[in-house]
Amino acid sequence: MEIVAFFLALICVSLNAKGHVLTWPFSIASSATYAWVFYGSGLFGDAALQLIFISLAIYAWWCWTRKVDAPTSDTRPQLVKQFGHIPKRMLVACLLAWFLLFIAIKFALTNYTSSVVPNTDAFLTAGSIIATFMSAQKWIENWLIWMAVNPIYIGLYIYTDLYLTAGLYGLFVLLCFWGWQQWSKKIVEQAQQSMKVSA
After folding, report:
1. What is the pLDDT of residues 32-54, one digit of tens each?
2. I need a labelling partner for 188 at 20 to 30 A (CA). Which of 86, 141, 146, 165 fits?
3. What span, in angstroms and rounded, lies between the C-alpha atoms of 101 and 75?
4. Does the structure show a pLDDT above 80 at 74?
5. What's the N-to-C CA distance of the chain in angstroms?
6. Domain boundaries, the chain
7. Burial 144-168, CB ≥16 within 10 A → b, else e
């Protein structure tokens, strides 16, 4: 089962790095598979996280495909969500949400589960939720959070004997840099297209 989850997750993150909408159905499939894997390994925070990922993937899929009329003389529909940078006020809100989620998840793991690593599990779970939400908004800074949490995930999965998944997160670290590069290009392309339309 871990092998299936490995390939589904790798496809998912690769598509996300390219900014492709098929990221989200693959995210649903990989999250459902990994929920089973993590639960069996005693990583209850990560198992629950997969259920949250599924909900966020459905939300992101909707965000990335919903269309509205362009607010210009151009009557063609456009995607609601454009690739861009997170507003400063939302950056502060996301960091605060990360902290509050960490406290809440740590409390739940410590008091209601037999999680083997509640502090690390809670920190990574909270960060991953925030990064996924930011990805749904097409904010490029989501890659910075993934760059921060993925190396820690590698150590966690080695500690819990999930060596294949640890290797997967090693690949994720590399994909983060590629994702940042690809999304940066998309932001520039969108800016150039906007200039052409307004010209």
Report:
1. 998 988 888 777 767 877 888 89
2. 146
3. 42
4. no
5. 54
6. 2-67+82-198
7. ebbbebbeebbebbeebebeebbeb
